[in-house]
């Protein structure tokens, strides 16, 4: 049955919850006087002892003096047998928290260790270890826990091949192994799933299944399957022969996003007319939006984002009036959004962003009374922002929580009409031409959490009332024309602020007392071109968790205090360039940026002097150019030789460095850009220069280098730009090397 559109929660949610109904039965069978068996108590204590980390202290109640283990955190016992039947030790944070929340709470809360003691919990029915970091292969012995009905090992740091023993869990109804963090799991076939005939929920997203050509055959044969998620699995196309025997009679949710499917798969999908949730985003579909979707009238969730559809939006799409979520982002859709969009009366989230659309019948949106999220970013509306807000008035403005109008060619002044959106949480108006002051009406939007007004033409002052937006977490207000003095009053009550990006407002100055303690802990700070000086900002010493810091061109005339280098070891971007910072840099701390990042440090265009510091191994970009560093390059490049290096970009130009280029470049194999020009370097190029196999750009002009070029330089086959300055007679043979490698060189 399809629920009425006025209900906020759609049927696709109920279908995904259906497989959990059996949990209610188990929970209702539990009573407070259940007593844990001694053998299982000991097994649980061994399990706790085998954990090498439990930083979140989830197992504090697990102790030999802790009484009945059925009362311990994360455990549920059966009241009849007194056996442990549920173990819930999932990470209470999710991976996104590490980029949105200072302190990397997800990573810090991940437990690790051995799982072998779980073998003694013979009656276990529910096991959730998701979000931890156990490492190694998924233990095959989990396949002997034959009573399991729920197994969640998602994002738990496992790697290697999925053990086939999991196929012995014939009572399993829920299986979640998805891995969006490392994608280190793989499987060459899915035959081990064939016996799991009771399975209702299956999520293998992020697991490499490129060799599992039987994926369609096996999942198609699972008779009870309601939810199938195979996002980012590198799946093979569905064999044409297999499409003749499509089953999936119970399937309600299908997620095939982040694969490489093309239009041929539609002939299968269009037979699944009972689907309520379909995600085909990030594939290789092209051409017209497929007409077969018009028959999938039960859909409440549809995502076709990030494909190559290039048609207009057909009117029949607006006839799918049970849709609650529609995402057509990032295609090449043409034309306008027609007035028929007003027929989507059940819609909760609507996104047409980043297409080639050139207008929208905005007045048809005002009666979408259930709409909570609206994203029209990239649509060429070419209107006054006041007219747009007027078109969105009505019952829409009463419910709307997130409004995205990024890069919509909007102009005019942001008027007080914004005040009608009382429930607004997220407001994104960046990359337009909106001018005038920031209106006072924003102060009435007490629920605002994220505001992006950057890259417009706002002028006037930085509003003092911003400090009263107690829910504010993210503020982007950079690249405008704001001016005036900002004080601690402007931030007085925004204790939840995590990101402040206000760079590119050179008329702003921050004037706070020397002992000011900010009420927030920021993960990202960007105040480039503000006047923060002349003293180094002392309030930064209280920001312990920043990952991004840009205070370049901020009028600082001071030394870097010692406490600064002890602030944060998890940053991935630090920019103090274009100030007048003087003194020495004795040490650059080891950094531990988020997974997938190498840190970037820019101290260029200052008055720094002395020897180069030792460079940590996980710095990816280092720019110390245009300073007064002197002495050898060896302290920077030849320390910690045994550690693997991440450095890709090294700019040391325009200093007073002397001596030879040290012969330890083999420790830095990832360098692709090196600029050493305008120093006093001497001697010949070291043979280890040839170990830089990724080198694309090398600048050596205006030094005192001499000697014979090492033959190993011919290994730099990717070299695109070479700047040697004036070519001395001793280096004439380099022309032949250049010609052999088709390099674009500069000999001046």
TrEMBL record:
InterPro entries: Leu-rich_rpt, Leu-rich_rpt_typical-subtyp, LRR_dom_sf, LRR_N_plant-typ, RLP23-like. Residues 38-78 form the Leucine-rich repeat-containing N-terminal plant-type domain. Belongs to the RLP family. It is found in: Cell membrane. It comes from the Eukaryota. The keyword Ligase does not apply. Coiled coil: none annotated. It comes from Hibiscus trionum (Flower of an hour). The lineage of its organism: Eukaryota, Viridiplantae, Streptophyta, Embryophyta, Tracheophyta. This is Leucine-rich repeat-containing N-terminal plant-type domain-containing protein. Keywords: Cell membrane, Glycoprotein, Leucine-rich repeat, Membrane, Receptor, Repeat, Signal, Transmembrane, Transmembrane helix. PANTHER family: LRR RECEPTOR-LIKE KINASE, RECEPTOR LIKE PROTEIN 30-LIKE. The chain crosses the membrane at residues 12-32. It is a single-pass type I membrane protein. One of its GO terms (cellular component) is plasma membrane. The keyword Transcription does not apply.
């Amino acid at each position: 049955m399809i629920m009425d559109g006025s209900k906020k929660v759609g049927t696709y949610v109920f279908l995904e919850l259906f497989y959990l109904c059996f949990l209610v039965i188990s929970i209702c069978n539990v009573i407070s006087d259940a007593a844990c068996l001694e053998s299982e108590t000991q097994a649980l204590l061994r399990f706790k002892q085998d954990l090498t980390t439990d930083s979140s202290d989830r197992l504090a109640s697990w102790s030999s003096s802790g009484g009945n283990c059925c009362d311990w955190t994360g455990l549920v016992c059966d009241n009849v047998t007194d056996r442990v039947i549920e173990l819930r030790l999932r990470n209470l944070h999710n991976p996104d928290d590490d980029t949105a929340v200072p302190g990397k709470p997800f990573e810090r809360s991940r437990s690790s260790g051995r799982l072998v003691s779980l073998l003694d919990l013979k009656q276990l029915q529910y096991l959730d270890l998701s979000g931890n970091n156990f490492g190694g292969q998924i233990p095959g012995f989990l396949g002997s826990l034959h009573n399991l009905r729920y197994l969640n090992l998602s994002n738990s740091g496992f790697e290697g091949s999925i053990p086939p023993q999991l196929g012995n869990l014939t009572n399993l109804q829920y299986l979640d192994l998805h891995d969006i963090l490392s994608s280190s799991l793989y499987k060459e076939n899915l035959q081990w799933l064939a016996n799991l005939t009771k399975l209702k929920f299956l999520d293998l997203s992020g697991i490499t299944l490129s060799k599992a050509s039987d994926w369609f055959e096996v999942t198609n044969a699972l008779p009870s399957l309601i939810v199938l998620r195979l996002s980012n699995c590198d799946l093979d196309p569905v064999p044409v022969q297999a499409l003749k025997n499509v089953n999936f009679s119970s399937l309600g949710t299908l997620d095939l996003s982040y694969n490489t499917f093309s239009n041929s798969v539609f002939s299968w999908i269009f037979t699944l007319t009972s689907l309520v949730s379909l995600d085909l985003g990030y594939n290789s579909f092209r051409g017209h939006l497929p007409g077969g979707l018009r028959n999938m009238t039960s859909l409440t969730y549809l995502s076709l984002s990030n494909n190559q559809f290039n048609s207009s939006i057909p009117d029949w799409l607006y006839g799918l009036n049970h849709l609650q979520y529609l995402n057509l982002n990032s295609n090449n859709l043409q034309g306008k959004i027609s007035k028929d969009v007003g027929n989507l009366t059940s819609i909760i989230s609507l996104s047409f962003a980043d297409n080639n659309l050139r207008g929208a019948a905005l007045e048809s949106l005002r009666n979408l009374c259930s709409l909570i999220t609206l994203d029209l970013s990239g649509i060429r509306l070419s209107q006054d922002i006041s007219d747009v807000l007027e078109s969105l008035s009505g019952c829409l403005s009463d419910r709307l929580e997130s409004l995205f109008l990024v890069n919509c060619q909007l102009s005019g002044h942001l008027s007080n009409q914004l005040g009608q959106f009382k429930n607004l949480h997220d407001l994104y108006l960046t990359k337009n031409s909106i001018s005038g002051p920031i209106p006072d009406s924003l102060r009435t939007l007490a629920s605002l959490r994220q505001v992006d007004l950057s890259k417009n033409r706002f002028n006037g002052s930085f509003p003092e009332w911003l400090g009263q937006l107690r829910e504010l977490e993210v503020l982007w207000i950079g690249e405008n024309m704001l001016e005036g003095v900002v004080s601690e009053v402007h931030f007085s009550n925004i204790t939840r602020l995590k990101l402040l990006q206000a760079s590119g407002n050179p008329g702003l100055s921050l004037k706070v007392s020397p002992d000011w303690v900010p009420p927030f802990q920021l993960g990202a700070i960007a105040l480039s071109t503000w006047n923060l000086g002349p003293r180094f900002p002392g309030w930064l010493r209280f920001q312990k968790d920043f990952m991004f810091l840009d205070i370049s061109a901020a009028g600082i005339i001071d030394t870097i205090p010692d406490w600064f280098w002890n602030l944060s070891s998890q940053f991935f971007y630090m920019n103090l360039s274009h100030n007048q910072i003087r003194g020495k840099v004795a040490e650059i701390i080891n950094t531990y940026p988020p997974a997938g990042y190498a840190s970037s440090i820019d101290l260029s265009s200052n008055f720094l002097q002395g020897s180069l510091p030792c460079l940590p191994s996980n710095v990816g970009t280092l720019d110390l150019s245009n300073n007064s560093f002197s002495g050898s390059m060896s302290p920077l490049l030849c320390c910690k030789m045994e550690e693997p290096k991440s450095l890709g970009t090294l700019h040391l130009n325009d200093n007073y460095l002397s001596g030879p280029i040290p012969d330890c470049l083999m420790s830095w194999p990832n360098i692709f850009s090196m600029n050493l020009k305008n120093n006093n370097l001497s001697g010949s190029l070291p043979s280890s220069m040839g170990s830089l196999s990724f080198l694309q750009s090398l600048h050596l002009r205006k030094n005192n280098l001499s000697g014979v070029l090492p033959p190993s330089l011919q290994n730099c086959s990717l070299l695109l730009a070479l700047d040697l300055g004036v070519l001395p007679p001793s280096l004439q043979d380099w022309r032949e090397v250049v010609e052999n490698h088709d390099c674009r060189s500069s000999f001046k």
